[in-house]
Amino acid sequence: MSFSTPDTFRPVILDDVRGAQKMLSGVARVTALEGSRHLTGLVGAPVRLKCENLQRTGSFKLRGAYVRISCLRPEERAAGVVAASAGNHAQGVALASSLLGVRSTVFMPVGAPLPKVAATREYGADVRLQGQIIEETLDAAREYADRTGAVFIHPFDHPDIIAGQGTVGLEILEQCPEVRTIVVGVGGGGLAAGIAVAVKAIRPDVRVVGVQAAGAAAYPLSLAAGHPVSLVSPVTMADGIRVGRPGDVPFRIIEELVDEVRTVSEDELSSALLLCLERAKLVVEPAGAAPVAALLSDPRAFAGPVVAVLSGGNVDPLLLQRVLRHGMAAAGRYLSLRLRLTDRPGALAALLGSLSVLDANVLDVSHVRTDPRLGLTEVEVELQLETKGPEHCGAVASGLRDAGYTVTVIH
């Protein structure tokens, strides 16, 4: 069975997106557009956050999935649908199918986060765990479609999917008519393509900027080559945009309508996620934080008002814990020090007293007494500290030196 049917290659136009908006009325939420004082200060122009992390199922994916399944013929609906996903698309297809009374089967990788597996089942899908990596899971879903006649619902490479995602762009224009730049994360490209179709048809002067994780940046290579290029092994914590090859349909749209595709590092993604939590009070997954990461990395590059699309908030708690630690480290909130003390009672207490005065929180202390480089009465202490940021790190190290300690900062 081929998934590149003639229908797949029809163009997506503004009327398609407006039709999708009517289909989604009462189904998808018109998500909030929240201001960010902190980002506004950095950029030097108003910055607003389009909160698709607060959409039903926790991401924008419901929009495209619902439109795609709504457009199926009666005999296709009767055959059921099948999808493959590690998270957001799985939940979008599961809920859309339940709302439309269509049987859905969703293949997920064996190592998919348990909360995402549970949520997909609760939305009504028959979940099957198969494959160690998403490519193996996709193969299993396609084999199932061939064998059963179920319709394969691609996560981004179909005009109906793109039209559904484009409703985010219509909402942005309605909520912020004065917008000059829209920044959106890019994986396969469905969301960015849909937004570009809607926005450029109404406001061609608005810049649409795509953002990819540097370790999974297939679009810059593909745009330079003039056709989709596959990455051998994309690597990023942002699983929502960890896609090895652009979709054929969104690629053509992005090539024509998207003004720029930027990349961001893992450190920038972590810092952006931390900022969303601390400053905006929003839980956002790494892929959803990609537009904020782009603003943090080069804040003066974006003409305002700017709208950054927070595409999803489905982050596994264990990953969130690791990302927050990484983000705090990238933001200079941790400090590792090594110093020597006289090995006598009270020496460590005196050191900890100095750290208390300097307002540094001690996370971990370790001692070394057996190193041959140490004097007979010396002990080496290694400290892991939590600080308030890079300036505070410098103040802590300087304060300890002023107190008479020989301090080595561990990078």
UniProtKB/TrEMBL annotation:
Q: In which pathway does it act?
A: Amino-acid degradation; L-threonine degradation via propanoate pathway; propanoate from L-threonine: step 1/4
Regions crossing the membrane: none
Q: Which family does it belong to?
A: Belongs to the serine/threonine dehydratase family.
- One Pfam family named in its UniProt record: PALP
Q: Which gene encodes it?
A: ilvA
Q: Any idea which UniProt keywords this protein has?
A: Allosteric enzyme, Lyase, Pyridoxal phosphate
Q: Which SUPFAM superfamilies does the UniProt record give? A: Tryptophan synthase beta subunit-like PLP-dependent enzymes (SSF53686)
InterPro entries named in the record: ACT_dom, ACT_ThrD-II-like, Ser/Thr_Dehydratase, Ser/Thr_deHydtase_PyrdxlP-BS, Thr_deHydtase_catblc, TrpB-like_PALP, TrpB-like_PALP_sf
Which co-factor is required?
Answer: pyridoxal 5'-phosphate
Among CDD domains, the record links this protein to:
ACT_ThrD-II-like, Thr-dehyd
Task: Report the residue ranges that make up the ACT domain in this protein.
Answer: 336-411
Q: What is this protein called?
A: L-threonine dehydratase catabolic TdcB
Assembly behavior = In the native structure, TdcB is in a dimeric form, whereas in the TdcB-AMP complex, it exists in a tetrameric form (dimer of dimers).
> Which organism is this protein's natural source?
Streptomyces yaizuensis
* The UniProt record lists the keyword Ribonucleoprotein: no
| Protein's UniProt keywords contain Iron | no
List its EC numbers.
Answer: 4.3.1.19
